[in-house]
Amino acid sequence: MKRSPRIGITTGLEDGRQSLDLRYVQAVEEAGGIPVIVPLLKTAEAAAEFAVLLDGLIITGGPGIIRGLIGALPADLPAVDPRRDLSDELIYRAAAERPVLGICYGMQFLNAMAGGTIYGDAQAQADAMIHSAERGAIQHEIRISANSHLNAVLKAEKLMTNTHHIQAVANVGEGLRATARAEDGVIEALESDDGRIVGVQFHPERMTGAAQGLFAHLVARASCDSDAR
Question: Among all residues, which ones are annotated catalytic?
Answer without folding.
Answer: 104, 203, 205
